[in-house]
Amino acid sequence: MNTKISIAGVEFKNPVTTASGTYGSGMEYGQFVDLNRLGAVTTKGVANVPWSGNPTPRVAETYGGMLNAIGLQNPGVDVLIKRDIPFLKQYDTKIIVNVCGKTVEDYIEVVEKLSDAPIDLLEINISCPNVKEGGIAFGQDPKMACEITREIKRYAKQPVVMKLSPNVTDIALMAKSVQEGGADAISLINTLTGMKIDIYRRKFLLSNKTGGMSGPAVKPVALRMVYQAAHAVQIPVIGMGGISTAEDAVEFLMAGATMVAVGTANFINPTATIDVIEGIEKFMEENKVEDIHELIGCVQ
Q1: pLDDT tens string for the chain (300 positions)?
Q2: Where are the domains of the chain?
Q3: For 239, what's the count of Cα atoms within 13 Å in the CB-facing half-sphere?
Q4: Which candidate in 100, 128, 146, 298 is catalytic?
Q5: Cα-flanking dihedrals φ and ψ of residue 174, to 5°?
Q6: What are the φ and ψ backbone dihedral angles of 191, each rounded to 5 degrees?
Q7: How far apart are CA 191 and CA 68, in angstroms?
Q8: b/e string for 113-147 if b means 16 or more Cβ within 10 A?
Q9: Which residues are within 8 A (CB) of 28 and not within 5 positions of it... i.e. 6 or more apart?
Q10: 146 noted as active-site residue
């Protein structure tokens, strides 16, 4: 039974990784989970300098999921290179580093610093607000998304995965735009924008007012967008958004995702990734699927 998949020439033992921002760099989960079992670990977003993130409260529970307005708090790329990558290199798993920034120059600085690092893929978070363009997210304007992809590809030594925002009118157009810019793969979805109000205090629950919604409630939207994106481009897709079980993961694979990422589920079940991996293997065995590629994109 073959569960190996390949993205931009990088081979993964199975198609399961972690969603950025839900797993740190694996250190916290390493005591509960055998990281050697994962296809890859995708790190929390890292910037050129440390970011303190948004003021609290910045997490709220919702029906079937959660809202977060962490604000991409991170210790900066230098700490990642010195501390986190050596930790992950102890394990037999691939390393995907998620990169964030406020300007094109910010992204490029991180990408350049990672050029000699022993990592496998770069995942570029273009849901960040572009401070030079009045705060619009890089991933909400097709032209801007294409341009930042092209710029990053000029400097990147590792294959580039562009992470798409679902907060757009036409996800297929965004997927085509980053492919045109030279992306090696795409990942989606990032969180949907949501809000929650405390009716007794008459205040927003999050100090930021809005936050990113994730968890099982977003899965039908994510699945639809992954299907549309996968059928719009010729590059691999990493699908995510509300994946909690192996059945969820198989749906994404059938919709056209080559790989899947487990995110919010990790907060309620630290072994969620392993459960998904083992569940996919069991599904393949029970349904006499010899090769994972028989499932990928089988639903047209």
Answers
A1: 999 999 999 999 999 999 999 999 999 999 899 999 999 999 999 999 999 999 999 999 999 999 999 999 999 999 999 999 999 999 999 999 999 999 999 999 999 999 999 999 999 999 877 777 777 789 999 999 999 999 999 999 999 999 999 999 999 999 999 999 999 999 999 999 999 999 999 999 999 999 999 999 999 999 999 999 999 999 999 999 999 999 999 999 999 999 999 999 999 999 999 999 999 999 999 999 999 999 999 998
A2: 5-54+71-192+212-294
A3: 32
A4: 128
A5: -65, -40
A6: -70, 155
A7: 9
A8: bbeebebbbbbbbbbbebeeeeeebbbbbbebbbe
A9: none
A10: no
Indicate the residue type of 36. N
CATH architecture label of 5-54+71-192+212-294: Alpha-Beta Barrel (3.20)
Cα distances (Å, whole numbers) of residue 34 to 26, 28, 37, 40: 10, 12, 6, 12
End-to-end, the C-alpha distance of the chain in Å comes to 24
H helix runs in 27-163, sequence order: 77-79, 85-88, 104-113, 142-155
CA max distance for the chain? 56
